[in-house]
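Illustration 12: Transcriptional regulator.
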Amino acid sequence: MHRILIVEDEEIIRAALRKLLQHNGYEVAVADSVEGATGEYDLDAFDLIISDLRLPGEAGTSLIGHAPGVPVLIMTSYASLRSAVDSMKKGAVEYIAKPFDHDEMLSAVAGILAENTRAATPGEQEASGTDSSGSDPADIMYGQCAAMQRVFTLIRKVAPTETTVLIQGESGTGKELAARALHLLSPRASHPLISVNCAAIPESLIESELFGHEKGAFTGAVSARTGLVEAADGGSLFLDEIGELPPEAQARLLRVLQEGEIRKVGSTQSRQVSVRMIAATHRNLKAMTRTGEFREDLYYRLNVMQIRIPPLRERQGDVLGLSKRFLARQADRMGKPGLSLTPEAMKAMERHRWPGNVRELENAIERASILADGDVIAPDQLDLDIETGDDYNIPSSLVEGDNEQTPPPSREADSGSDLSLEDYFQHFVLENQDRMSETELAQKLGISRKSLWERRQRLGIPRKKS
Ligand SMILES: Nc1ncnc2c1ncn2[C@@H]1O[C@H](COP(=O)(O)OP(=O)(O)OP(=O)(O)O)[C@@H](O)[C@H]1O
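Figure caption equivalent — predicted structure in token form:
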């Protein structure tokens, strides 16, 4: 059994992570600081250390020096994304941005452990074929229907190459998981996969986050910084929501793709990098090139190979399989092994159109597991909003350009009761997202683009196709 040490000072996160890993078959020890970890344990006895970056006392990255033979996965919040780059330079095997979801953490852990086992016993893994995590897309994401099987076949074929991949799909369909599969199945798997959500980084910072900057390049640039592209050197860079990339950053990215080199903001020097690029979008990039929002030359560079992840409504055959998987996870987490769906709940799930795709399904199961009296989940607890679902089912070809279309109000609004802040947020976004960019929406709501993106994820409000 693999032994993992968690070093995290926030008790809630520490306890949740411990539970998650234990339920997935790992032996787990915990500490709340680097000093605590080194004082209490022989660090070399662990197969993996997962540590928060910011801790009271020494930073999490100092564990890399304390246990040189043990891979260290650093957890960091967006605010310290820059430090994540430094962590990678100091030797962390990977970083994961908080808040992370459980699959993301489990797949990062499985990937690192598999890679380490492979490195420790060269040749053996390939020969025995026992490497179960990260050896096939089906180990990383679920999909039995013909459409997903086609996606898996494509991933198997493209992953070992250096080809740039553009993953298309609505929000919550599993684009990030597909990117992870592409990386883990590639010869670059032992190098970092850096995932960047272009919509979650403030526009004014995105260039320096991605490409780094020189000291004095702009007000506040008190020292030179390495960017995330450089941190991915040797590995893969996953640019999610690529359609949100501002024009200047698009130009710099084109240079990386064309010349394989980056130039920091404020620098005249370029540096060669070897990065496999994977981009994803829910938007119609081709249409964006026609309106001038996205560079055509960049579009063609990115779109060498396209993988389309179908919306969940096009793979209704997978709904119950996915539900089973998420139910089993909830059952583990909550210590309720008998959790199940009533036949009516199953029917309701099969009928629902899933505008928020797999993420919505995952959230519905999580919510229902908590609300269920006992072990059985009834349709009510799933709280599937049929109206909204139908609305999102209007084919995008009909919706395109129809800025006046207003989604039906939610049930809460129908009831005429006071709107909570979240209801207000949801209404505002649904009503205005067709005619406002993410930046405008965030400005009107008085929140950052990152908060907007995070709330969309939390509330399961997908973005419509443009
Ligand atoms: N095929 C799948 N099997 C298991 N879990 C899945 C699958 N597809 C998606 N998920 C889960 O659904 C959630 C959303 O997936 P993911 O973040 O990959 O979607 P996305 O398309 O990148 O979304 P967005 O565009 O909003 O960033 C994640 O928790 C992921 O683990």
